[in-house]
Specification:
lyase activity, lyase, 440 residues, Ribonucleotide Reductase Protein R1, domain 1, 17 helices, two-stranded antiparallel sheet, Fumarate_lyase_fam, Fumarase C, Chain A, domain 2, Fumarase C, Chain B, domain 1, Adenylosuccinate lyase family protein
């Protein structure tokens, strides 16, 4: 088994990361850093900090040169960061020392790496946006189509009152809808460029470092943060926390599907299920199980990453390395989760017959709450609760229906109290409201 299942040829289809997986490769990181170096040179040339001819040569080379990440490995192992080796290789490949000397002028490794990270995270967030939108549309269709499909609600694993399958779907979708709104706000705010030099003081970045930083941000389509953020990892931890909340919401979706497909309940059918190596009758809920496992991984990685926000002094290698080890797999956890969740939402279907059988086999006990309130027009609430509790015990002991026991005692009761379709409360409205809230 590989150290990371995301990189495994064997497990790739179990944890499909799609385009996001390509953004967290050595090649993608090197390419992003080269783009930052090229944009930096171009803005410095325009500002008169380095010769414009050299700036143009560096910028052109940043788009054309190919640097093998493996060739940077030994120096990276020694330096702790890849930028010194990258700069050396870049200068060598340019074969123009008169221009190459101005590469990486006044910047520090963290400026280049953090800015390159933001370029890649920008693409990851865009992918999340699209994936969440598609997932929400699939859930909205399910919620609307089954807004009045009755099923047993369960609390503490026990039958509670009737609800609708559409309302259950809305419970899965509502947190994702909130997260989608937050994601768009985060994207609209933009991700920050980093340019503040060796110790955050921008000493070697020319006469107007703030203007240079703003120009670099504009060149790369990033936001000017207005300050150095080498040791301020607030945005990174904010993104990590958002990813974890999203993965947790998908995990809830997975947990419920595992329960709804288990033997003895089987109220939901999955479009695709896994086979057992020895038990041909089994259809294992593989996709839902992946969602639960990814949620667990995200929560663990997020805890690791949040602790890495403790950057000592102006810059901190240990905290930064911890961030490198936790942020990429955290991002990929959500990418894989969104892919699996969308496949599930597009193909799962409620087994309405199984849901009806569950309701029918419940001996009418899901109507106990409604019955206790209906009786309050003839007795106090505590008396009504006690009377219904006694009837429930009687029905369970005798195997009779609560409706029959109640009507025998109070013949004028509305028999509709015991019809699940008539006791859905706000469930249909909740389902439709969620579907309506999903952007078209």
């Amino acid at each position: 088994m590989t150290a990371s299942l995301f990189d495994s040829q064997l497990y790739a289809r179990l944890l499909p990361t799609g385009e996001a997986g390509r953004l967290f490769t050595d090649t993608a990181e090197v390419r992003a850093m080269m783009l930052v170096e090229g944009a930096l040179a171009k803005t410095q040339g325009a500002a008169g900090i380095i010769p414009e001819l050299s700036a143009a040569a560096i910028h052109r080379a940043s788009l054309e040169l190919q640097i093998d990440p493996a060739g940077l490995a030994e120096a990276t192992g020694q330096n702790g960061v890849p930028v010194p080796a990258l700069v050396a290789a870049f200068r060598d490949l340019m074969q123009a020392p008169e221009h190459a000397q101005y590469l990486h002028w006044g910047a520090t490794s963290q400026d280049i790496q953090d800015t390159a990270l933001m370029l890649r995270l920008r693409q990851v967030l865009a992918q999340y946006d699209d994936a969440l939108g598609s997932l929400l549309h699939a859930l909205a269709r399910l919620a609307r189509d089954h807004s009045e499909t009755p099923m047993a609600a369960r609390t503490y694993g026990q039958h509670a009152t009737p609800t609708s399958f559409g309302a259950q779907v809305a419970q899965w979708g509502r947190p994702l809808l909130t997260l989608h709104t937050e994601l768009r706000q985060m994207r609209d705010a933009g991700l920050p460029v980093s340019l503040s030099g060796a110790a955050g003081t921008a000493t070697a970045l020319g006469p107007d470092p703030a203007a240079l930083r703003a120009a670099l941000a504009a060149a790369l389509g990033l936001r000017d943060p207005g300050h150095s953020w080498h040791s301020d990892r607030s945005l990174v931890t904010q993104i990590a926390a958002w990813i974890t909340r999203a993965a947790t919401a998908l995990g809830k979706f997975g947990e419920d599907l595992i329960l709804l497909t288990q033997s003895g309940i089987a109220e939901v059918r999955l479009g695709g299920a896994g086979a057992s190596s020895t038990m041909p009758q089994k259809q294992n809920p593989v996709g839902p199980s992946v969602l639960v496992a990814l949620a667990a991984q995200a929560q663990g990685l997020n805890g690791m990453l949040q602790s890495a926000a403790l950057h000592r002094q102006q810059r901190d290698g240990a905290a930064w390395f911890t961030e490198w080890m936790s942020l990429p797999p955290l991002c990929l956890s959500l990418s894989a989760g969104l892919t699996q969740a969308h496949a599930l939402a597009e193909t799962l279907a409620p087994d309405t017959d199984a849901m009806a059988r569950t309701l029918a086999a419940s001996q009418g006990l899901l109507a106990a709450e409604a019955l206790s309130f209906a009786l309050t027009d003839r007795m106090s609430r505590p008396e009504a609760q006690a009377a219904v509790k006694a009837l429930c015990k009687e029905a369970l002991a005798s195997g009779t229906h609560l409706r029959d026991a109640a009507l025998a005692k109070w013949p004028d009761l509305d028999a509709g109290l015991f019809e699940p379709r008539l006791q859905l409360g706000t469930a249909p409205a909740e389902a439709r409201a969620f579907a309506d809230a999903v952007p078209g």
